[in-house]
Write a structure and sequence with these properties.
alpha/beta; Ubiquitin-like (UB roll); Rossmann fold; 6-stranded mixed beta sheet; 4-stranded mixed beta sheet; 15 helices; 13 strands; binds magnesium ion; nucleotide-binding; hydrolase; metal-binding; GTP binding
């Protein structure tokens, strides 16, 4: 099988180049950034997107993947119909990550526009038993999964005799097992081929030798786990080993969110549906996320005028659409965090990986900002909102300034909980992370 280029969220190499500050700061940061060029290729709306990750919608045929895709993606036009293998080529769409903080900041700063973070969704063809051996639409479709950063697995939990189930009955456990097994087989195949190659080849130098040794050792452990039916992500690896196996883009390394697709009538109390309960148990066993949604309802909602949507949801006993939850769960599961830049022109959410340093976070806006990083200023989101402006927060002494700056540096990355010595972002904090373009 031809190897596809996989899609990674790569943190730029760590450097602390605060003193090297001659390079930058004259460019308009709203223009194409490193990540814009890198992560959002052709769409014309991509100039507004900061860093986009890909989530792939997978599942058995005819379980509601395209219906969900069309509901989530504004103007989504994937063909969704009641027959298996309706989707053949993947459909791709961009979805905004809902974040109420964006609008609060935008109002406080009188911004002309608010630009949310976004996720790229890929609606992939249905997988069936034997896909790794070419069954159904076969290997080609596993290769589409290889290209995504995370997996949303739609699991059918609705009973409807008119909608064909490829295995004859609604059975979430068996559906999840079928998909997991295909992903496991595909990884095993990939590892076997790689091991053979590693055995034959000779490393160029001692550095490559070290890396290959780490790769071999990691692959052996992953292979064992896969043979025991466990995903590769369950195997503890050192950072060096993770890096050594990254190029294989193993499918079972990718985080999974299970999307329990329920009937309209189950939406108000999904946990009463035994199929949903089963998916809940499996998701927690497999250390994966779970979201309950009715793709059918979400798709009907998009057809309604805005004012009628709330009424419809109320009639079903729920107060909000499940899409926001789905997107936020996906975003959180990937260890992604947001910080904001805010000014009159725009308030914008930028995506970073948990654990990125302040210079790296600045580098998401523009790589020059990382190279010439000078200082970070810190303020908690709530403090900022209470103060009402950056100037007021400064006056009240709520902003901590780290290093001295005398170069007219205008990007004050304001990072709460920042370890100023090492400029490390602390995992898990960034709900309070803000940055400002003066
Ligand atoms: N929650 C639901 N309740 C009832 N019917 C649903 C629900 N979700 C989806 N369906 C119906 O299931 C059928 C299959 O949906 P869809 O085409 O989205 O499946 P798919 O997973 O994309 O299939 P394929 O793998 O063939 O592309 C459609 O008729 C759709 O209306
Ligand atoms: Mg489809």
């Amino acid at each position: 099988m031809a190897r596809v280029a996989c899609h990674h969220l790569i943190a730029p190499a760590v450097s602390l180049p605060w003193k090297n500050s001659s390079l930058f700061f004259s460019r308009n940061i709203a223009q194409t950034s490193h990540f814009q060029r890198r992560f959002s290729s052709s769409s014309s709306s991509s100039s507004k997107i900061s860093m986009t990750l890909k989530a792939g919608i997978v599942g058995l045929p005819n379980v509601g993947k395209s219906t969900l895709f069309n509901a989530v993606v504004e103007n989504g036009k994937a063909q969704a119909a009641n027959f298996p293998f309706c989707t053949i080529e993947p459909n791709v769409g961009i979805v905004a990550v809902p974040d109420p903080r964006l609008h609060v900041l935008s109002a406080l700063c009188n911004s002309q526009r608010a630009v949310p973070a976004s996720i790229e969704l890929v609606d992939i063809a249905g997988l069936v038993k034997g896909a790794s051996q070419g069954e159904g639409l076969g290997n080609k479709f596993l290769s589409h999964i290889r290209e995504v950063d995370s997996i949303l697995q739609v699991v059918r939990c609705f009973e409807d005799n008119d909608v064909v189930h490829v295995n004859g009955k609604v059975d979430p456990k068996s559906d999840i097992d079928v998909i997991n097994l295909e992903l496991v087989f595909s990884d095993l195949d990939q590892i076997e081929k790689r091991m053979e190659k590693l055995k034959k080849g000779k490393p160029k130098d001692s550095q490559s030798n070290l890396k290959e040794e780490a790769e071999k050792s990691a692959l052996e452990r992953i292979q064992q786990a896969l043979m025991d039916g466990k995903p590769a992500r369950s195997v503890p690896l050192t950072d060096f080993e993770k890096d050594a196996v990254k190029h294989l883009c193993l499918l079972t390394v990718k985080p999974i969110v299970y999307v329990a697709n329920v009937a309209e009538s189950d939406l108000a109390a999904p946990e009463d549906n035994p199929h949903v309960k089963e998916v809940m148990n499996l998701a927690s066993e497999l250390q994966s996320g779970l979201v309950t949604i009715s793709a059918q309802v979400e798709s009907e909602l998009t057809e309604l005028p805005l004012e009628e949507r709330t009424e419809y949801l109320e009639s079903l006993g729920v107060d909000e659409s499940g899409l926001g939850n789905l997107i936020r769960t996906t975003y959180g599961l990937l260890g992604l965090r947001t910080y904001f830049t805010s000014g009159e022109k725009e308030t914008k959410a930028w995506t970073i990986l948990a654990g990125m340093t302040a210079p790296q976070a600045a580098g998401v806006i523009h790589s020059d900002f990382e190279k010439g990083f000078i200082r970070a200023e810190t303020v908690a989101y709530n403090d900022f909102v209470a103060a009402g402006s950056f100037a007021a927060a400064r006056e009240k002494g709520l902003i901590n300034s780290s290093l001295e700056v005398d170069l007219g540096f205008v990007l004050g990355l304001a990072l709460d909980d920042l370890d100023l010595e090492g400029s490390m972002l602390v995992d898990g904090l960034p709900s309070r992370l803000m940055g400002f373009q003066a």
